[in-house]
Specification:
Blueprint lengths: L1 E10 L5 E6 L5 E2 L2 E3 L6 H13 L5 E16 L2 E13 L13 E6 H7 L3 H16 L1
Parallel strand pairs: 1-6
Antiparallel strand pairs: 1-2, 1-4, 2-3, 2-7, 5-6
Helix pairs in contact: 2-3
Amino acid sequence: MEKSCGVVLYKEGDPRQYLLLHYPEGHWDFPKGHVEEGETEIDTALRETKEETGITDVEIDKGFREKISYFYTRDGKSIYKEVIYFVGKTNAEDLELSHEHVGGEWMPYLKAVERLTFKNAKELLKKTDLFLQRT
């Protein structure tokens, strides 16, 4: 099993904006990456956000923790993967994208739902937006 952690990153505004990253394979998703030895889930999520976006100003809301799981194929083998997501608020505007991405964009909820590639990511964004409306 592989385990990664990530952040659904947002900034307040009218409307609220979410950050999506564009991967070389063509899909759009949230910042995430593999857990390293000795890291907590939140440590991993924050480190990966910094590495992939350059953003360090992130306030994690510990009231939100969502797990996505799926299978993917690597080298002809089926791999089970779990990704733990947190919701994080930032005031940052600018992105310093890593080599792992070909683009990134802040966008309002409806555009973000439309742009996300995978159904589980769309569901995650819906849960995140509902959570933020209630807090």
